[in-house]
Request: fold
Amino acid sequence: MAAVHSSQTLAGPADAGPARNIRNRRIAMHLGIFVTIILAWEFGSRAGWLDPLFYPRPSNIMSSFWLIYFENGNVWYHIGVTMSLVFAGFFGGSVLGIVLGSLVGLNGVLRQFLKPYVIVLEATPRIAVAPLVIAAFGFGSGSKIAIIVLVCFFAPFINTLSGVMNVNVEKLELFKSMGASKWQILQKLVLPDAIPVIMAGERLALTAALSGALVAEFIQRDQGIGSLILIYTRNLNMASAFACIFTLTLLGFLIFRGMEIIDRTIAFWKHEQGRSRMTAKRRKAMEGSL
Amino acid sequence: MKDYIMSQHAKVDDIVVSGRSVGKTFANGTVIALKNADFDIKRGSFVSLVGPSGCGKSTLLRLVSGLIPATSGEVTVHNKPVTGPRPDISMMFQKATLLEWRTSLENVLLPTEIAGTITLADKNRAMDLLKLVGLGDFVFAFPAQLSGGMQQRVALARLLQTGADILLMDEPFGALDEFTRERLNTELMRIVSEVGATTLFVTHNISEAIFLADQVFVMTSRPGQVAKIIDVDLERPRSLSIQTSPEFNNLVADVRETLGAV
Reply:
C-alpha cells in the first residue's frame, strides 16, 4: 500500500508538469485570440471601417458598463426585475409541466384524449402566443410571468411524460412480485427513475424562461433588462445596449452553473462525485445512529 | 416402514408448491408457452428448471409467483390456489434490478419498506445478509459502484431479506462470467440450506441445474412442457469436484437424453 502511495506521489508532479504546460499554452492562446479580436474591433472602429453607431468600440462599451453599474447604478434594479420574472415563470412552468406530465403519462385515457393537442402545441412556437397573452391579461408582471410559464412549461412536461412512461419492465415486475401498491410503485420506482430525464427538461426550461422574459419585456417596454436594451437601442446608445447584452451573458452563465449544481444534487447517482459524497454521508449517518 | 410413513406424511403436509395440468397460452391461445405441467415440490427442496429457450421455464416460475395467471389448470402454494404475488414468495431475476439511487443497504431493505415500516431489527438483518453474501464492506455503495457479480449479491440479499420460505430465481447468475457464477452457486447452496427455503431455480445450464438441485425438471419446447422430473440423490454438502463423478455424469446424460429425445 505504501509503495503504491509513494509511486503515485512520484508520478504525480512528473505527469502534471507537461499537462499543466499544455493547459497554460492553451489558455494563453485563447487569451491572445480574444485580445486580438477586441483590439481589431477597437481599431477598426477608430479607423472608420466599422460604423461606430452599430458597432460601438469596446472602450465605449466598457465605459457604459461603468456608467450603468456604478455611476447611474440603474441596471441593478432591472436585473432584479428580469430575474424575478425568470424564476417566477420557470417555477410556475416547471410545476405545471411536471404535474401535467405525470398525470398524462400515468393515465392512458387522458393521454389518448390529449395526444393530438400535445402534437399541435409542440408544432406551434409558444412565443407566438405572447401578444395574445398580453391582450388577455393586460400589461404588468402577471402577463409577463404567464408568457414565461407558457414558453418553459413544455420541456418539463414532455420529459416528465416520457420519463414516467418508460419505466424499466424488469424493475416493475420486481415491485409487483413484492406486492407493491400502485402508489408505492409511483413513489419508490417511477418518480425517482424519471428524475434525471425531468432534470434535463428543467435545463431546457431555464433557457426558454430567459428568452421568454426578454420577449415579454420587449413587448411591454416598461422595466427589466429587455426593456433597457430596447430603449438604449432606440436612443442609439449601442454601447449601453451591448453592456446589457453582456450582462445577460454573465447572468445566463451563472444560472446555468446553478442549475448544474442542483442537477448534481438531486440526480446524484448519475455522477461519480455525487455517489461518493452520498456514500460517505450515509455511512456517517449510520455511525451516528449507533 | 418408517420411510413409508414419512412419504405418506410428505404427501399431505410437506408439499409446498404443486401444479395440476397447468397451462399457459399467450396471444389469444396462438402461442402455447406451457402445456399440462404436473408437479409437487417438497418443503425445503431445491428444484432446478432446465431446458432450451422457449420451453416455458420462466413462464412456470411466473405462474408460481402469481405475476401471471394460468390459462388452464391450477398452481397451489401451501394448498391454496395462487391468485397474485404473496409475501411468502420472493423472486430474483437475471438482471440485478437494483434501484440506482439507493445504497446496497437501502436496496436490500426495499421489500421490508414495501411491506410496512423498517425497524432496527430489519436494518440489522439487512446488514447481516449483506455480510452473508460477502458485501460487508459495500453496505453504503451505490449500484453503479459495484461489479455485475456484486450487484447480483445485493439482489440475493434482498431476496433473503423478505424472509419468504419460497424463493424463485430466474437465471439469477446467467449474465455473469463462469468463475463468478460457480462461486455464487456454491454460496447460494450454503445460504439456501442455512435458511431452509424451498427454491425454484431456472437455468439453461445442465451442470448447474444438477449441481444445485434435489430435483431437476427437464423442460422441452414447442409446446413448452415438463418432459421429465429427475431426482438428484447426490450427497450434501457438495463441492465443485462432484461434477467429475460418474453419478453426476449419469445424471447429465439422463437430462441430455430427455432434451434430445423430444
Notes: The domain at 71-289 of chain A is CATH 1.10.3720.10 (MetI-like fold). Chain A has two domains: 2-50, 71-289.
